[in-house]
Amino acid sequence: MLATRLSSHRSVEIPETTHKTQTVSIVIPVFQGEKTLPRLVQEIVNLNSIPASHEHSALQIIEIFLVWDGAQDKSAEVMKQLSEQYPQVKNVWLSRNFGQHAATLAGVARTRGDWVITLDEDGLHSPEDFHSLLTTALEGNFQLVYGIGSQPAPHSQFRNSTSRIAHWLFKTLLGNEQRHDFSSFRLIRGDVGRSLSAYCGAGVYLDVALQWVTSQSGSCPVTLRKEWRTAKSYNPPRLLGHFRRLVLSSPVSPLRAISLMGLFTIFLSFGLTGYAFYQKITGNVPVQGWTSLFILLSFFFGIIMVSMGIMAEYVGLILSISMGKPLYLVQSKFPQMEKN
């Protein structure tokens, strides 16, 4: 009888453990949101009435931070109306335009959700992809997930080209080959994002700062929509400004290449010196005066490059300190505990 009961007990199918409902905070920097914010906020609020499917994890949007970043249109009036219409909407007023990354960090610092999602105001990214971002993070134990378009962005050829160059530089020249492409559509662990916002200084590129404190990041394919606004907020000077901040706030691995090139040049001069002496002693090739001049130039040029590389390392260290790169960052939970 006991064996029969045990056998019967083992045959019972136990349902898969589901993730607990994850609270999510939304951060949207606002620069030209007069015509796009009402529709975007409505889409986000409607997500709370959509139940989680079998493929997606349950989420609850508890707050939507609209960060006014010196907008020149009537975004401020629209933000006030939305905060009165929806209890989830909370406004953050910056004193002037500080840029998209600073505005994003200002919003993240005020969140309280388990996760934080950042996105632009232009409607390019759909809130329907929030579930996919969260599911990717939970299944992969990722602290950071980027929403990467499954098709080219509906921007100008110039903007798309510069974006591809910036992504290639970020991943290759700056020592981030294993990192995923980045975008403004991000899912960040709440405690990690809030701690990072307390450290970052002026001029930091947000995606570089996120690489400082995250060991696990992933990406999720999303569908890019056509922007709802016709105004052009990203002109060539602004794009170049983003590119400049990306390079300046990134690691100093390109600068280390200067030292390596200098060391190679020094060893090359030693090799040329030995070769020149050998040819002079054997008398096979007459050595003219320019040979010694070339060797001396190679040697001292290598010394200069090594010196520049060392100074660049010091500059990079000072830059990291001034930008607020943290020595460490404490999480509230061990990543594996997220699934429990």
Explain this structure.
The chain has 340 residues and is of the alpha/beta class. It has 2 domains: 22-249, Spore Coat Polysaccharide Biosynthesis Protein SpsA, Chain A; 253-322. The protein is 48% helix and 13% strand. The chain has 11 helices and 7 strands. It has helices at 2-10, 37-46, 75-85, 100-108, 130-140, 157-173, 190-199, 206-213, 236-248, 253-282, 289-322, and strands at 22-30, 59-68, 89-93, 115-118, 144-149, 186-189, 217-222. A 7-stranded mixed beta sheet has the order 3-2-1-4-6-5-7, sandwiched between helices. Strand 2, helix 3 and strand 3 form a beta-alpha-beta unit. Helix 6 (157-173) runs parallel beside helix 9 (236-248) and helix 10 packs antiparallel against helix 11.
Number of helices: 11
The CATH superfamily name of the largest domain is: Spore Coat Polysaccharide Biosynthesis Protein SpsA, Chain A
Strand content: 5-15%
CATH domain topology of the largest domain: Spore Coat Polysaccharide Biosynthesis Protein SpsA, Chain A
| Level-2 CATH architecture of the largest domain | Alpha-Beta Complex
What percent of the residues sit in helical stretches (DSSP H or I)? 40-55%
Distance between the termini: 35 Å
Total domain count: 2
User: Which class best fits the helix and strand makeup?
Assistant: alpha/beta
| Count of distinct strands | 7
Radius of gyration over C-alpha positions, nearest whole angstrom: 27 Å
Quickly describe the structure.
Helices cover 48% and strands 13% of the residues. The chain has 340 residues and is an alpha/beta fold. It folds into two domains: 228 residues, Spore Coat Polysaccharide Biosynthesis Protein SpsA, Chain A; 70 residues.
